[in-house]
C-alpha cells in the first residue's frame, strides 16, 4: 500500500476498509464489489478510500492480501527443498479453498481489467516471487543448492504449473502433485556436496 501525503492512516479505519473489501469479495466476487459498497460496509466515505487507494482494484487486492497473509507463512526448516515443498504445498492448499478461489477469480477478472491485473502483479505476484527467491537464496548460502541453478526457472516450474492446472487444464492439484513438481524442479539444482 502506498500512502499519500497528509495525515497518517487511522489503523482502525484502514482495517475496517480492508475487512469490508475482503468480505464483499468473498460474498459476491470482484465484479460486484464497488467502492460505494466498501465505504458503506466499512462506515467510511468514498473519499477516505480514494485518499488511500487509487482504485477499487488496489483496495480489494490489499483486503485480500491482508486476510490471506496469515495463511501463507514463509517456512524456514533449514532445507531449501523442504521450505519450497512446504511453501508450494501451502499455496496449493490455499488456492483450492474458498478463499483461494477468490484469487483465481481475481486473475480471471484481471484479463479484462488492466488496473486489477497490475495490482495483482505488483501486490501479489512480485512479493511471492521475492519470498521464493529468499528461500532459494538461503539454500544457496547454506550450500543446499547448486550455484548454477536457475532460480527463476525453478520458481516458474513449480508455481506456474500449479496455476496452469487451476486456471487452464482443470487437473487436480494436491499434495502428491506439488511434491512431484518440487522433485522435478530441484533435479539438478541440489548441491552435489
TrEMBL record:
One of its GO terms (molecular function) is DNA-binding transcription factor activity. The keyword Transcription regulation applies. Gene3D superfamilies: Homeodomain-like, Tetracycline Repressor, domain 2. Keywords: DNA-binding, Transcription, Transcription regulation. Pfam families: TetR_C_11 (PF16859), TetR_N (PF00440). It comes from the Bacteria. Residues 34-53 bind DNA. This is AcrR family transcriptional regulator.
Amino acid at each position: 500500500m502506498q500512502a499519500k501525503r497528509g495525515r497518517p492512516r487511522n489503523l482502525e479505519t484502514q482495517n475496517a476498509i480492508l475487512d469490508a473489501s475482503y468480505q464483499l469479495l468473498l460474498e459476491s466476487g470482484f465484479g460486484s464489489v464497488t467502492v460505494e459498497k466498501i465505504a458503506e460496509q466499512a462506515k467510511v466515505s468514498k473519499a477516505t478510500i480514494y485518499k488511500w487507494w487509487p482504485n477499487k482494484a488496489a483496495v480489494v487486492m490489499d483486503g485480500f492480501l491482508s486476510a490471506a497473509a496469515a495463511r501463507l507463512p514463509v517456512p524456514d526448516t533449514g532445507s531449501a527443498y523442504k521450505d519450497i515443498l512446504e511453501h508450494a504445498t501451502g499455496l496449493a492448499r490455499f488456492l483450492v479453498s474458498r478463499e483461494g478461489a477468490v484469487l483465481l477469480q481475481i486473475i480471471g477478472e484481471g484479463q479484462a481489467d488492466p488496473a486489477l491485473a497490475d495490482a495483482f502483479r505488483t501486490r501479489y505476484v512480485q512479493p511471492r516471487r521475492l519470498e521464493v527467491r529468499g528461500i532459494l537464496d538461503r539454500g544457496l548460502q547454506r550450500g543446499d543448492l547448486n550455484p548454477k541453478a536457475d532460480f527463476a526457472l525453478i520458481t516458474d516450474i513449480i508455481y506456474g504449473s500449479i496455476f496452469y492446472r487451476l486456471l487452464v487444464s482443470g487437473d487436480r492439484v494436491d499434495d502428491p502433485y506439488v511434491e512431484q513438481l518440487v522433485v522435478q524442479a530441484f533435479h539438478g539444482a541440489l548441491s552435489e556436496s
